[in-house]
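Sample A.
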Amino acid sequence: MVKLTKIYTRTGDKGETGLVDGSRLLKSASRMQAIGDVDEANSAIGLALTRIDDAEAKAMLGRIQNELFDLGADIATPGEDFAPSDMMLRIVPEQPARLESEIDAMNATLGPLTSFILPGGEPGAAALHLARATVRRAERALVKTASEVAINPLALTYLNRLSDHLFVLCRHLNANGSGDVLWKPGATRED
């Protein structure tokens, strides 16, 4: 159980922050960039939720927001032991597997894509497209971090699957794809 009684600690005033194991590193370190990008993606999902009425979508996104906090804790835990325990939150196989199951269920109701989709459509879907792009940035940051330090491979899998999930959910919210905004290659070249 987390209990915070004081928000500021002054321990980061010199540009360092603490990891789960008590070690410290610069806030500019790639590990911290990845954690920050995950946090930003979570915030973008939270904003999108204010524009979504679909109860099933809200439930999925609520679970995802909680898992993104788990993911942040996973990334903030140095080491090469990726087994979860009472003291270490780690992304586990069931989490990306659940995303895949939800993707498959939503995708079953969608028609095939006939073009790339432009970010847009109904307000909730448009906001989720921004969250999806932010998740992709978090994934790139985590790939960079994984080239420098040991990172749970399932953390990378989770982010990759999450961006796919958000894409399919955008299509679902856009009237099962009929409200998608389609890319028209070269459409403005002769204007």
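Sample B.
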Amino acid sequence: MDFSHKPVLLEECIKGLNIRTDGIYVDGTLGGAGHSEEILKRLRKNGLLIGIDQDRDAIDASYKRLSNVDTNGKFIAIHANFENIRQILKEQKIKSVNGILLDLGVSSHQLDIGERGFRYLEDAPLDMRMDKNTGFSAKDLVNTWSKEEITRIIREYGEEKWASRIAEFICEARQHRSIETTMQMVDIIKSAVPAAARRDGPHPARRTFQAIRIAVNRELDVLERVLPEALECLAEGGRLCVITFHSLEDRIVKNFIRDKSGRCKCPPSFPQCVCGAVKELKAITTKPIIPTAEELKVNNRARSAKLRISEKL
């Protein structure tokens, strides 16, 4: 199976990881192995890259892509969610690593394979699971969650102004028959969003599909859980590179780096610090790195990408 993939902010990530030839690195979102390929090229035989992905297709495709790279003894692929990074490294008897890369969001392959149910432009089963072994799908969400729960995720994760109306139409539609396909979902959204609001801007289903995908895969919860785990796994001087594609993701990463940079949380009225803030991270990028115009010409899916880099002290 072809796992097409154009790695986003590739040069910036490689530079940001500050790769040592004998270092140990983790690509927590292996995907099409585009980032991993470039990391491996810079490692000698005593270096190591651990690639993690919850999508079995990514694991299988990574070996195919890396067939032209010397991976002998330098590469391990693990089928798992990167939220378990600490346990994964423990099982590999690795105490700490020199760099961790997290490229968040949905992969190009997952978008391109219609049967995965991520796309709103073609008919397919309403799935959206990044890990096909998990039981909970988008179909389960839209057919079982309450109107209030559906409204909340569409509003928060999709930043959709018509969230309440879309949730109302979903709950009305499922009373007549189960919502099973992407096109059923698209038709419901189109009927909920007023015609005037559909004339301009992105596809009317885009924000809702994004919100449902984030909820199904627990993407924000996983991110909040993995960041402190990643920090704990880094060696002194180790780099953490995180690529986000959503404002809520970027906010979580930004706040984490800020909170771990020793910033005092005491009220301004306090005469001295009593919160005990400890500086554990140094922000390498004070502002997020975004794709260049040249990159966007060849990879439009990079348009909302933001890279933040930090270093463990």
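B remarks: The chain has two domains: 10-109+219-312, 132-216. The CA atoms of residues 157 and 248 lie 8 Å apart.
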